[in-house]
Specification:
11 helices, 2 domains, three-stranded antiparallel beta sheet, mainly alpha, 305 residues, flat
């Protein structure tokens, strides 16, 4: 038998050079993403600070969001964003988790193999389609049939956003439930528990970190949705402050769209264009806070099996 020496086990110089090139390329790509992210944040912060330094602070807390008139009421667009996101999650949370429970605990292997791709395909529906669906069906057949709300309202936009978010919540939650070890289910069945009891009291608590992550991911998606709220919420040029979901309202993303659309430079008051950076910074901080809260919660409640 031939004995191998340490020299025989050395990596060939050409292979080492190739590995070094690949490693450097990957490191450069990772570093580039950090640089791009940092540049975006610095641009937002710099322009937002410049806007705050020039604007009358009273204009940031006025009767409504009308930036072309010099009224930059932050609470109007923040309230509209939170109202629509809350309505969306009232739709997406029960539908998404119930669907995830069915796919994980009740559906057969063949049924799951068919429904899971269909569910993920629903997440690819363009949001502009759901925006028009909100105007042509949700608002006249649900909202206006039960109330005297106008065609454009935050409620109809919130329901449409909830439909958009449901597949995302369901897919992520189902993955978390499906990852729960089978021996936990078998132990529950061995104690005489029914499938419903096992699903609710064993599987859901075991997958709670993934379920919460799915819900927070859905909230982030609802807050960042643009086309549906721009089409269906009704406030294109601006909005008065209001908390009634049956009235038109303005969100942060729709406010940015309404300002910048159709022109290479926003027209209006002197600081109209700069106000976009403040809204963008607030939106970034909200989503960042949600992601940090989600990471902290998941890290605290995650269980190892």
């Amino acid at each position: 038998m031939t004995r191998l020496s340490a020299l025989d086990l050395r990596v060939a110089p050409r292979r080492r050079r190739r590995e070094a090139i690949v490693r450097a390329a990957f490191a450069g790509t990772a570093g580039l993403t950090v640089v791009i992210s940092g540049a975006i944040v610095l641009s937002l912060v710099g322009n937002a600070v410049s806007f705050i330094a020039q604007v009358d602070l009273g204009a940031l807390w006025s009767d409504g969001w009308f930036p072309r008139r010099g009224m930059y009421d932050i609470k109007t667009i923040v309230a509209g964003t939170l109202i629509i996101a809350s309505i969306a999650m009232l739709v997406a949370a029960p539908l998404g988790i119930a669907t995830a429970l069915y796919l994980s605990e009740y559906a057969g292997r063949r049924t799951r193999s068919i429904l899971k791709p269909v569910l993920e395909l629903l997440a690819a529906i363009p949001s502009v389609v759901l925006g028009f669906f909100s105007l042509t069906w949700i608002s006249p057949n649900l909202i206006q049939a039960l109330t005297d709300a106008p065609l454009f309202s935050m409620a109809s936009a919130g329901i449409a956003v909830g439909i958009l978010v449901t597949p995302l919540v369901s897919s992520v939650a189902e993955d978390a439930m499906h990852a729960v070890p089978d021996y936990l289910r078998e132990a529950s069945y061995g104690l005489g528990a029914r499938r419903r009891t096992t699903s609710v009291r064993v599987v859901v608590p075991a997958a709670v970190s993934g379920i919460v992550a799915a819900l927070l991911l859905g909230v982030s998606r609802a807050i960042g949705e643009t086309m549906i709220v721009a089409i269906a919420a009704g406030a294109t040029g601006g909005s008065l402050f209001g908390l009634n979901p049956l009235e038109p309202g303005q969100t942060m993303t729709a406010a940015m769209t309404a300002l910048a659309i159709g022109s290479d430079q926003v027209r209006g008051a002197a600081l109209t264009f700069e106000s976009l950076f403040l809204v963008g910074l607030l939106l970034f901080l909200m989503t960042l806070a949600l992601n940090l809260a989600s990471e902290a919660f998941v890290r605290r409640v995650r269980r190892q099996y």
